[in-house]
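Q: what sequence does this backbone want?
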C-alpha cells in the first residue's frame, strides 16, 4: 500500500498532460500581463506624485475643495477591481474548461 497522500503516478500523469501544460502557461502569461498593467498604472501615478505634484493638486473647479488627484486615485483603485474581474471572468471560462478537460483525461 502506498503511504503517500497523493499518488505520485497521478501527479506525473497530470503534469505530463498537454492540456495541463497549456493551462499553466496561459494562466501564468495572463496573470503576469495583468500584473504588469496594474504596476504600470500604479507607478505612473506615483511618478506623477513625485515629479508633478502640482498637477494632482489642481482643483477640479475653482469652488471645489477636491483636487484632481482624489478622483484619479479612486479610479486607480477601481481599475484594480476591474482587472480582478477580468481575471475571474477568464478563470471561470477558459481556465476552468481546461481544468475540467485535464480532470477527465486523468481519470
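A:
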Amino acid at each position: 500500500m502506498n503511504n503517500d497522500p497523493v499518488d505520485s503516478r497521478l501527479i506525473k500523469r497530470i503534469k505530463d498532460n498537454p492540456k495541463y501544460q497549456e493551462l499553466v502557461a496561459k494562466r501564468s502569461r495572463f496573470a503576469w500581463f495583468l500584473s504588469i498593467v496594474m504596476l504600470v498604472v500604479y507607478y505612473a501615478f506615483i511618478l506623477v506624485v513625485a515629479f508633478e505634484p502640482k498637477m494632482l493638486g489642481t482643483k477640479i473647479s475653482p469652488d471645489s475643495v477636491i483636487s484632481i488627484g482624489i478622483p484619479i486615485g479612486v479610479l486607480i483603485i477601481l481599475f484594480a477591481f476591474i482587472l480582478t474581474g477580468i481575471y475571474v471572468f477568464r478563470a471561470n471560462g477558459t481556465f476552468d474548461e481546461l481544468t475540467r478537460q485535464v480532470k477527465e483525461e486523468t481519470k
